[in-house]
């Protein structure tokens, strides 16, 4: 089997290829002391000028967290995390209102440059006074960016265009001040503060994130996007995102991340909550490319994320699409609670692991309302010495008459030292529900490779073509901007996979 | 999955108290128990630490033993007569048979075979090498308290024909008893055997058998199990099978009885080209609960495993399927397939299915599928449009679903025996 030997070579070369996005920006940071206790939580709350109810909410979450056990059921292994050895607050020190782009911390600008943010947008992101932009910006005509630079949203663009449509898109800390009634109504209503260990931790210490509110009947005029970057040494990143789509509204939200190269493992425990009311639709797309650690698995991000959407209204729809190529450990199960009659949940996922990466990811579809439908398509690709697990739950409750689920999980193994696992849970308590699950595990078929090679494609192109074909069902669900990025990312991840 | 009408803490306490009573029984009996005392002590230690599995044990996530934990079980009396009624319920198979009553081998009711070596565990105790008391708490309970069982060996190259292994629970004085038979089946190189295992009974009891099966090179064991225990019974069976190169373990389990039943199988494909078939069907009604759990370990290259498990669930019954295919590093050219189908016939029935793949080799073909649903409305319509009344149309479709489940059974005697059991189940549903 010559292909196997070559595949091994290629995987090895992937191993040796450096992390392309591994740069680190040195900006002066404002840290809270290490450790977690009520005082730190009070400090965070105070720094953000939060109302009392939110502080109470945080403290309750913290009290719950203290009674909880770190979960170990996922198929991942890592050294024990000392939660008292982390900084829970870090904010970039901002000089009050730089006048020109030249005055902005050059490190910060360089970082935006590497992220590919256009010049004018950089000015806004860096908070240059008078740089507010009413109209679209060249190059990214219809994407609004809320850049989360470590823990504090630095700035938000496109506010005005959005404001005209009645859409609220701002850092969640700002939403707490400006729209407290909305935040109070929805925060924690999908992921309760004591939902799980990491969600409780996040609820206690979240420092920032995005808030999106789409009013009744509004189709959001542009794609909304957040860049996440983890940038300071030893800080956990605890983002909190809340998206509310009122009746008849629609929004597409993009989340993308790259992170600087570093030695120490970093903890990331975000919470994302989505609420869709009658006939509303939310599309949430993620491209995750955080630092996965080196070839021996040193360093790399620990990504313990809770993402959940509630289809509260009739005929509402929530669609999760993710392309996961980064992080040392991924623990992530974007879920849909299908309450509204005829509501729809979707989960499309591509997870690529190489070297010593470990991914345990999947979804939960909870069918509560009648005639609810869900679709799960998961594609796992394991290479090197990595482990890639799909773990998913489909639960049909007795009231969910006529519920329908179809699940497709495919795993592709590249090399002899990796692992691919599938752990679906299927629970049905309604006889009129139809649930179907299919899973396959295989390697790249010799005859497929042969077919491509015979037609003159190089082995690498052939593998790329086959892998892209393998993931096509998922990639086609991504919005345009992300689809391009994702395809590049797949190619980079499997770079030199062959030949 | 907290208890219905019983708090988690109360359940934990009930489990602990039943476990304690088993440990106390072991302390009282241990001087008289046959076999390796150290193995028993180790098992008692493991059982003492783990206790009875609760809902937080991942392997027992869907099978809650709270109903069992609420019971007090006694040591069975040695029954010497009075189980003729049960004997009559055994299928009329002309083959040799081993009959156990309340877990004890009854030579007087058995017909010993000439083609293989057979003895009771009480006389020739051997705990074997495959059982994992430290991992499976019920295997620990069995190892701790096993008193009897069937020790069966077939010599090299011998086709031993058919053997019936019957377990009867006699309910002598109407008090709940617990018995933990320990069976071992060993087929030497090239040997063949068809083993038909039947569990029947009356009253309330716990039947907790552990079986060790060794299939030698090129040997073939056809193992058909019919579990038709009393409606108040608990049937928790654990089987460990080790299959050598080119050997075949062809297993089928039909579960129609018991209040709570669990069929747990750990099959290891240890030599090249070994084959394991772990098929089954569960027909449940009322408040029955049946759990089919399997772990197939592909440890050698070019092995094949096939599993098809079908559930037909009516009333408030609950079916569980947990199946895991493990493919070890180096077990290339593995071919693993698993299918779990459930037919929910009533609004209150429930199915929980967890088909798992755990794969560490790249050149493999593994797949699993699961479907859950009611009868197909189009199919019912088709039959009705041709003049078949709805109840009959439904029955016809369920029968077709079941017939498909029983299809893998090639052995005619076994097939007849299971077909009859399915008929009895239908009669019960009609009543």
Summarize this entry quickly.
The complex is a heterodimer of chains A (499) and B (431). With 499 residues, chain A is α/β, with parallel strands linked by helices.
Distance between the termini of chain A: 15 Å
Topology order of chain B in helix (H) and strand (E) letters = HHHHEEEHEEEEEEEEEEEEEEEEEEHHH
- What's the total count of β strands of chain B? 21
Question: How many strands, which pairing sense, and closed or not: the largest β-sheet of chain A?
Answer: 10 strands, mixed
Describe the oligomeric state of these chains in a short phrase.
heterodimer
Number of extended strands of chain A: 24
DSSP helix fraction of chain B: 10-25%
* Most extensive chain-chain interface: A-B, 37 and 35 residues
Provide structural commentary.
The complex is a heterodimer of chains A (499) and B (431). With 499 residues, chain A is of the alpha/beta class. Chain A has one domain. Chain A has helices at residues 2-16, 38-47, 52-66, 106-115, 119-125, 159-165, 172-178, 180-186, 197-205, 446-454, 459-475, 480-493, and strands spanning 29-31, 90-92, 143-149, 152-156, 168-171, 210-214, 223-229, 240-245, 250-258, 266-268, 271-276, 281-289, 301-311, 317-324, 329-332, 335-338, 344-353, 358-361, 364-367, 373-383, 387-396, 404-414, 419-428, 434-443. In chain A, the strands form 3 sheets. A 10-stranded mixed beta sheet of chain A has the order 4-3-7-9-12-14-17-20-22-24. In chain A, a hairpin with a 2-residue loop joins strand 3 (143-149) and strand 4 (152-156). The longest helix of chain A is centred in the C-terminal third of the chain and has 17 residues, at 459-475. The relative contact order of chain A is 0.11. Mean pLDDT of chain A is 80; it is low at 1-5, 10-18, 130-141, 150-155, 228-235 and 259-263. Chain B has 2 domains: 8-269, no CATH class; 377-431, no CATH class. Helix content of chain B is 23%, strand content 37%. Chain B has 8 helices and 21 strands. In chain B, the strands form 2 sheets. In chain B, strands 3, 4, 6, 7, 9, 10, 12, 14, 16, 18 and 20 form an 11-stranded mixed beta sheet that branches. In chain B, a hairpin with a 2-residue loop joins strand 1 and strand 2 (104-105). The longest helix of chain B has 22 residues, at 8-29. The two termini of chain B are 32 Å apart. The model of chain B has no long low-confidence stretch (mean pLDDT 93). Chain A binds chain B through residues 1, 4, 73, 396, 398, 411, 413-443, and chain B through 58, 329-330, 342, 344-374.
